Structures are given as C-alpha cells and as structure tokens.
C-alpha cells in the first residue's frame, strides 16, 4: 500500500508535507503581491492635472468669435485667453450659439458674457455652456470694429493624436488613447471640435492645434477612425483668433498601424498610448 500522505478536509490536522507546500506558496505570495503593487504604483502612467469645475458656474466676458470654431477671447491686465466653447454633455456649442442668435442677433465680434463650467489644463481653457441657451448672459457692440485675421504659417508634416478636447482637458481621466476612443468618437460626432496633440521638433511638451480639412472645412466625421491612434499627416497651418489650426489633407493621414514608431528618435511612444 502507498504511504503517500493524503489529506481530507474534515481531518483535524494537515499532514506535514501539505503544510510545507502551502507554507511555501503563502510565503511566495506575501513577497510577490507587494512587489507587483509597488511596480504598479511606481511605473503606471500618472493622470494629468487637468480640471473640470463640476457644479460651479463661472461668468466670463470677452469677444465672441465664430471662426474657426466658437471661441471667447477673454482679456485682463496681464494676459489674453482664447477659450473654446463647448456644449453640455457630448455636444459642441454651435447649435447653442445658433439658438441664442435667433433671439439676440449675430454675436460674432461682439462683447459677450456667458455663464458656464470651466475646463482647463496644460495652458488650454474651455467653457462648457452647461445651461445651453440659458448660458447667455448679455452682449454689446464693441466701440471699434473687430478684425478677424487669418495668418498663414506654412506647411507642416508631423505626428500626433487627435483628441476630444472636452474630455482630455478635464472632464475624463484618462481622456486620451485607445481606452478613451469610444467616448471621444461620441463627443466629436456631437460637434465638439477635434484637437491635435503633438510634440514639437524642439522639445518634449505638447502643443495643441484645432483640426480642420485642407480647405478649412469641418472634418469631425472624417477623422473618427483615427481617434486614439498616433498618426502622421500633412497640413497647412493657419492662426486665427488665438488658435493654430491644422488644415489637414485627409488623404495624407497614415495611422500608427501602418508604420513603426520605434524608428522615431524624437517621440516617445508611451506619450501616445
């Protein structure tokens, strides 16, 4: 008869060999689990410090611009901010502005006060028109005519990721990459203007550009399939109302899956995933 130890759960004592085996397993787990937790804490990609002032309405007064997207130019003694306007939820501000203008007349170039929820991070500010058309507070004509100039900054070929700016700059964490792709698709489909995040040739900090078609047209639907991926592209750059605009040739876009980012010595792949 075999003398191998055999343990049945209702026995009062466990055989010595079983005790030794389980003890080794438990010691290993007690060592490995803290190491895995420490690795996760030390090496995970940290969340950014972008903010969404949920539940707090702020009134901002500035010059309203229709183009290239709804923008409020807000100035104080020290600086001027060109604030992107977005709608409540996963929608842009254009329909809200259109409804307001039915009652108040054309707002483009006027001094306008809106009440909304601030979203901000990395030097970029957005204002959510939380109460939709009721976000409008007042407006008045300017004493001098506001000239809407477009500056041509030349051609541009580089790499980046198309973002949903509302989520990225504060509403969601993370608000970027493949994990956020489905949410970003809904936001851009609802009219929130797409923004390209790029690392410039000369540094490691991000720059942000509004994304339009090569003739300045909206391309929200056309770029949906590229959201959450690193892409390279050709574009002309213009500057209008405080924002640089990438007028992208859609046919030039090449997605991450079509090339090897390991060949790039300037960009860090981790910054795009």
Given the structure, what is the number of helices? 4
Strand content: 25-35%
User: H/E element string?
Assistant: HEEEEHEEEEHHEEEEE
Q: End-to-end distance, in Å?
A: 61 Å
Structural class label: alpha+beta
CATH C-level label of the largest domain: Mainly Beta
Q: In order across it, which strands form the biggest sheet?
A: 2-3-4-6-5
Q: Indicate the CATH topology of the largest domain.
A: OB fold (Dihydrolipoamide Acetyltransferase, E2P)
Mean pLDDT: 86
Question: What form results from the Cα inertia axes?
Answer: elongated
Helix content range: 10-25%
Q: Structurally, how many domains make up the residues? A: 2
Strand segment tally: 13
CATH architecture of the largest domain: Beta Barrel
**Which consecutive residue ranges, at least 5 long each, have pLDDT under 50?**
259-273
Rg for CA atoms: 26 Å
> What summary fits the major beta sheet?
5 strands, mixed, barrel
Instruction: Describe the oligomeric state of these chains in a short phrase.
Output: single chain
């Amino acid at each position: 008869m075999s003398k191998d130890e055999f343990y049945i759960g209702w026995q009062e004592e466990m055989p010595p060999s079983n005790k030794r085996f389980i003890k080794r397993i438990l010691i290993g787990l007690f060592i490995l689990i803290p190491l895995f937790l420490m690795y996760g804490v030390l090496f995970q990609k940290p969340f950014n410090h972008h903010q969404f002032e949920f539940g707090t309405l702020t009134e901002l007064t500035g010059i309203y611009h229709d183009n290239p997207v709804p923008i409020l130019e807000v100035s104080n003694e020290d600086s001027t901010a060109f604030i992107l306007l977005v709608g409540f939820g996963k929608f842009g501000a254009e329909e809200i502005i259109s409804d307001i203008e039915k009652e108040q007349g054309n707002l483009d170039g006027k001094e306008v006060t809106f009440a909304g929820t601030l979203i901000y991070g990395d030097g970029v500010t957005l204002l959510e028109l939380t109460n939709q058309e009721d976000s409008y507070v007042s407006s008045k004509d300017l004493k001098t005519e506001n000239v809407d100039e477009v500056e041509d900054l030349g051609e541009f070929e580089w790499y980046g990721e198309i973002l949903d700016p509302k989520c990225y700059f504060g509403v969601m964490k993370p608000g970027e990459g493949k994990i956020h792709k489905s949410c970003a698709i809904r936001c851009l489909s609802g009219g929130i203007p797409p923004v390209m995040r790029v690392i410039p040739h000369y540094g490691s900090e991000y720059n942000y550009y509004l994304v339009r078609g090569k003739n300045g047209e909206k391309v929200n639907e056309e770029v949906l399939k590229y959201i959450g991926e690193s892409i390279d592209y050709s574009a002309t750059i213009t500057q209008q109302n405080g924002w640089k605009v990438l007028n992208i040739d859609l046919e030039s876009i090449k997605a991450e899956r079509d090339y090897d980012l390991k060949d790039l010595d300037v960009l860090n792949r981790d910054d795009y995933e």
